[in-house]
């Protein structure tokens, strides 16, 4: 049971050059779902990348006006960024009845995006990594044991701002321009298991896990290659946390095992995550059921699950990895029916347009150069 045309769904996104939005569009077109895509942009690149899509100014008042003018349509907001979630909270009581979304309470959202509060909250589940104050780190005696510390912005996305501190000198040379949390460096810092869930009032509707096999930069960063896994301990932790939070909506927890095998919570994203298409491509249907819950339809978990599902971010990161040892890795370019390629699968020639438009987007270059410096 898919999203039949009678539901008249308009899926509301933000940026046109968000790879998650591009993948979701490609997926739904590939499987033949009749969904209209709406973006905060009226431009040539929207028309080229998303044929048949709609555009608007991005202002909430204009979204409401569009919904009022199309009462036969159901506008489902799918926030990809924290700023978009906050816009929902600001206007939660100011919308026509055909605009839908599924979000946690504002207090829960603020808890989950604050890494200090989240780390302390995780203590109740026995999965909190050690946390230190900057004053502790500035004591030379602290470093005699050979400790390694991960410094992260209290509120941040991806690898931006991450700094590994290994010595007293590292700390004294560390100049933070925003609030940071200082955590123990857990495991190898890279072999992260993600728990991804759709929940409604504290009950997990559907979930899956993936293990991160490769990142860019390779020292630790955004996932460029991940594959499905299933760890009962993480499933238990994720389910218990969702229940404790009475959570509604989409969310991601990231865990990593310490040297004793104990799972530690690294962070949470109470919104859509970068590898979302692994779940849809593999049959877990979190997005489809998010839409169905929003508009008051029953959920559907009838899709056949492919336990061998993988996801790769080929351009540019996996291609860079392959080129470094092309004589050994050439086989990685061969087709793999179990793998979804971010930005490429289901896109056809529009992938070329996506690359071209990205080359003229300053923010894309800033992100790429930052990751290049970290590698």
Topology:
Blueprint: E1 9-12, H1 19-30, E2 36-39, H2 44-49, E3 54-55, H3 60-69, E4 74-77, H4 82-90, E5 99-100, H5 106-113, H6 115-121, E6 131-132, H7 134-137, E7 149-153, E8 163-165, H8 168-172, E9 180-184, E10 193-200, E11 203-216, E12 222-229, H9 232-245, E13 249-257, E14 263-269, H10 276-281, H11 286-294, E15 310-312, H12 314-324, H13 326-329, E16 339-341, H14 350-359, H15 362-374
Parallel strand pairs: 1-2, 1-4, 2-3, 4-5, 15-16
Antiparallel strand pairs: 6-9, 7-8, 7-9, 10-11, 10-13, 11-12, 12-15, 13-14
Description:
This protein is an alpha/beta fold and 375 residues long. It folds into three domains: 5-103, Rossmann fold, CATH 3.40.50.720; 130-184, no CATH class; 193-345, D-amino Acid Aminotransferase, Chain A, domain 1 (2-Layer Sandwich), CATH 3.30.470.20. It is built from 15 helices and 16 strands. It has helices at 19-30, 44-49, 60-69, 82-90, 106-113, 115-121, 134-137, 168-172, 232-245, 276-281, 286-294, 314-324, 326-329, 350-359, 362-374, and strands at residues 9-12, 36-39, 54-55, 74-77, 99-100, 131-132, 149-153, 163-165, 180-184, 193-200, 203-216, 222-229, 249-257, 263-269, 310-312, 339-341. The strands form three sheets. The protein has a seven-stranded mixed sheet with strand order 14-13-10-11-12-15-16. It has a five-stranded parallel sheet with strand order 3-2-1-4-5, with no helix packed on it. The longest helix is centred in the middle third of the chain and has 14 residues, at 232-245.
């Amino acid at each position: 049971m898919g999203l039949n045309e009678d539901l008249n769904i308009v899926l509301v996104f933000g940026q046109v050059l968000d790879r998650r939005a591009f993948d979701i569009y490609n997926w739904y077109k590939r499987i033949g779902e009749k969904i209209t895509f709406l973006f905060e942009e009226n431009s040539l690149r929207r028309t080229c990348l998303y044929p048949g899509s709609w555009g608007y100014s991005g202002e909430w008042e204009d979204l409401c006006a569009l919904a009022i003018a199309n009462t036969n349509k159901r506008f489902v907001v799918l926030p990809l960024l924290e700023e978009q979630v906050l816009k929902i909270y600001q206007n939660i009581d100011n919308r026509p009845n055909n605009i839908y979304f599924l979000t946690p309470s504002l207090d829960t959202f603020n808890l989950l995006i604050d890494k200090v509060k989240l780390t302390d909250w995780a203590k109740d589940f026995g999965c909190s990594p050690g946390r230190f104050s900057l004053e502790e780190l500035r004591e030379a005696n602290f470093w005699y044991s050979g400790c390694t510390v991960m410094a992260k912005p209290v509120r941040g996305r991806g690898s931006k701002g991450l700094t590994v501190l290994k010595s007293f000198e590292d700390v004294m040379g560390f100049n933070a321009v925003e609030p940071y949390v200082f955590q123990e460096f857990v495991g190898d810092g890279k072999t992260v298991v993600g728990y991804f869930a759709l929940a409604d009032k504290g009950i997990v509707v559907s979930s899956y896990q993936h293990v991160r096999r490769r990142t860019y930069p390779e020292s630790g960063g955004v996932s460029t290659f991940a594959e499905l896994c299933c760890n009962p301990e993480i499933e238990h932790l994720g389910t218990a946390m969702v229940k404790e939070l009475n959570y509604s909506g989409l969310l991601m927890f990231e865990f990593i095992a310490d040297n004793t095998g104990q799972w530690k919570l690294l962070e949470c994203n109470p919104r859509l995550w970068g590898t979302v298409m692994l779940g849809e491509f593999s049959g877990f249907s979190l997005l489809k059921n998010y839409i169905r819950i929003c508009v008051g339809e029953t959920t559907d978990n009838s899709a056949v699950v492919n336990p061998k599902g993988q996801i790769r971010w080929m351009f540019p990161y996996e291609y860079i990895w392959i080129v470094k040892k092309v004589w050994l890795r050439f086989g990685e370019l061969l087709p793999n029916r179990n793998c979804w390629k971010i930005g490429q699968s289901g896109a056809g020639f529009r992938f070329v347009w996506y690359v071209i438009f990205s080359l003229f987007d300053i923010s894309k270059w800033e992100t790429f150069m930052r990751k290049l410096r970290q590698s």
